[in-house]
Amino acid sequence: MAIGPLAGVRIVEVSAFVAVPLGAMTLAQLGAEVIRIDPVGGNIDFSRWPVTGAGDSIYWASLNKGKRSVTLDLKSPEGQAIASSLIASAGIVVTNLPARGWLSYERLTAAREDLIMLSLTGNPDGSPAVDYTVNASSGFPAVTGRGGEPVNHVLPAWDVIAALYVATGILSAEYVRSRTGAGQHVTLALSDVMLATVGNLGYIAEVQTNGRSRGPLGNSIYGAYGQDFETADGRRIMVVAISNRQWHALCSATGLTEKLAMIGPMLEVDLETEAGRFAAREAITAVLRPWFASRPASEILAALASGRVLHGLYQTFEQLVREDPRCSIDNPMFSTVVQPGLGDILAPRIPLAYSVSSVPSAMPAPVLGADTASVLGEIADLQEQVGERR
Amino acid sequence: MAIGPLAGVRIVEVSAFVAVPLGAMTLAQLGAEVIRIDPVGGNIDFSRWPVTGAGDSIYWASLNKGKRSVTLDLKSPEGQAIASSLIASAGIVVTNLPARGWLSYERLTAAREDLIMLSLTGNPDGSPAVDYTVNASSGFPAVTGRGGEPVNHVLPAWDVIAALYVATGILSAEYVRSRTGAGQHVTLALSDVMLATVGNLGYIAEVQTNGRSRGPLGNSIYGAYGQDFETADGRRIMVVAISNRQWHALCSATGLTEKLAMIGPMLEVDLETEAGRFAAREAITAVLRPWFASRPASEILAALASGRVLHGLYQTFEQLVREDPRCSIDNPMFSTVVQPGLGDILAPRIPLAYSVSSVPSAMPAPVLGADTASVLGEIADLQEQVGERR
Q: Does A358 touch chain B (CB under 8 A)?
C-alpha cells in the first residue's frame, strides 16, 4: 500500500552518480514509485567508493534507497524498446544521459504524448561538467579557508542542490500537466545551478555594485560575529551572534559582558550593530578565547545551551554517528534498514514531515536488477489490457 | 499577465535570512505570486551584509527578487489580523518564525481550512540552529582542506538545500491538496536537512559498515582521480577523471600516456580502475604537475577542452563575473535588472527551463513595503465580494 504525498506517481530514472539519483530518490521518499533502469551489471556508478571490504558500494546503496531496479541491455534495440515502454507507462522520466536517439524527447513522446522528461546536463550546451569542476569556477574555493590556495568543499553541494531542483522541476511540471494535460521537457544544467545560487546569494551583485567581493575569512562569519574556539579538552565549538539578542546571550553566558563592552570605546565601534561586531571580531575573539580554552567542552556546551547562545560542536563523521543523539533512531527521521551487502544501517527518510500525508520510512536500496521480471510483467499485463480494450 | 508553471499560485512568506526567503523566491521564480510580510522598517535581515556604500543590503535584494513586499506592525492585533487575512486569502504560508500565537497552524486554519503551511526550524524541537552551527556538527569541516583544524564552507549549503526542500514541501503538499482538498502543516528542521544529506551521501553507513570514514584529502577527489594544478601563469585548474574514458582523455590530452602507464607496474595498481587511480594519485599528480606548471592556462584549457577532459578553471567571484561567459546575459538564464539602491545588476531566473511553460525573467526585489497598499486593497475587495455573495 503506497503512502506519501506522491503515492501513485510513477517515475523512470536512467542515470548515474549523485544529482539525478538523489533527485529521483527524493521523489521516492515522498511516496513516488521510482524505477531505476541500469545496464546489465550496473551503470558507471555501481561500484563508486566508499565500498565495503567485499566491494559493495555504500555510495550506490545510499543514493538509491526505496527504488525498484530494472536492468536491461540498453545498447540493443530490444532493451531500448522495453525502456521506452516503461517510460511511456510511467509518464515521467529523469535522466542525466544525453536526450538523443531512443532517449530523445521526440521519440519518447511518440509513445506518450503527455510525457514529462527532465534532463540534467553539465553545461547548458550539453558539454560535461561535474560538481568538482563547477565548484572550481564558482568563486567559493578561493574564499574557503585562510586563503593562499583554493580549498574545495567536500560536501558535493552543487549535486545536492541540483537534485532538489530536479525534484522541484518534476513537481512543477506535474502541476502544469494536472491542470492542462500537457507534458513537457524540463532541462537543467549543473553549471546554471551554481550560477543561479551564486547570484541568489548576492555574490554577483556584490562584485557589480562594490567592484569586489569578500576575501577569505577562515572560520569567521562575514558581516556579523561568528568564530570557532578550541576547548580545554581539545574539542572545537562554533559560536554565532548575528542578532543583538544572540550577541547579548554570548556576553552573558560567558560572564564576559563587562570586558567585551570595553572593546567598543577601545576600537571606536558600536558593538550593538552587526557591522560593529564584524569590525571588532579579532578583539572579541581575543577576549572570548581564554574562556573556551580553560574549560572542557561539556561545561561550555551546558553554559551556551542554558544561555541560549547559538553554537555547534564540531564533530567528525564518526562522532556524528556515535555521539550525536540527533543521528540515531531517537530521531523519527531515521530508521534502521537491512541493506543487502552492508547489513543494518541507519537511514533517513525525507526530512519533511506532513501533518496529514504520511511519508514512507527509509527503505533499503534494491539489489541490482531485482525488480526486472516483476516490472516487465506489469508492463506486459498493462499492454495486454490495452490490447483487449481496443 | 502571470507566467510560469506556478502562475496563479499565491504564497505568503513571513521569514528572514536565507532558507525560507530563498525557498519562497524559488516558487516566485516558477511564477507564483509571493507576498513577503515584514515588520515596518524591515525584518532582522534587512540590512544584512554585504551592503553598498550607502548601506543597501545586496544580500536582501538578491534573496527577495520578484516578490511583493508588505509591511505591517506584526506585534499589534490589527497587524496580525491583516497578516492572517492575507494568509487565508493566499492559502499557502511559509515561515521560519515559531508556529504559535497568531501564526499557529490552528489559528490560521480557523480562517482557511485547507491552508498549506510550511514551518522551518533549526532543530526539530524548535531550538535554534543556523547553517554555521549545523555545519560544524555535520562532519564536513573536519575533512575539508588538508586537516589539522576544521574548515567551514563559505557557501551556505545547508540553507540553500533547505530552501529547495521548502519548495519541494510546498509543491508536494499542493499536489495532495489539489487531489483531496486537504491542506496540511509541513515541518522541516535545518539539522534534519544536514543529517538526511549526510545519510543520503553514504557517510553514516560508511562509519557503521567500515568503522570509520575518510580523512581530509585536500583538493583530491575520494575514490577516483581528481586534482588541482597550478599553471605557468599562476592560475589553477581542477582536473577530474572518474570513468575510464575520462582517464584516457586526460592521458591523451597531456601527451603523457606512456609515462602515466609506467605507474601501474611501479606501484602494482591497476590504472584501469577508479580504485587503482585513487591509490596511485600522488604518482599521477607528480607526472602531470610539470605539464601544467610549464604552460599558461589558456593553452592548457584549449588542450583539455579539445581532448574532452573534465576540468574547471578556478575563479574568484570577480573573475566569475568579469571573465566567465556563462555568467553574463549571453546565458539566457540571466538578465539585467534595475535594482533600487544597487543599480543595474545581473540576475538569474530559475535554472530550470521548460519546453511548454515559460518562466519569468529575473525581476528586482521590491522596495520594502512598496506593495502594502495595493495588496491590502486587493484583500479588502476580496472580502467585500465575499460579503456581497453572502
A: no
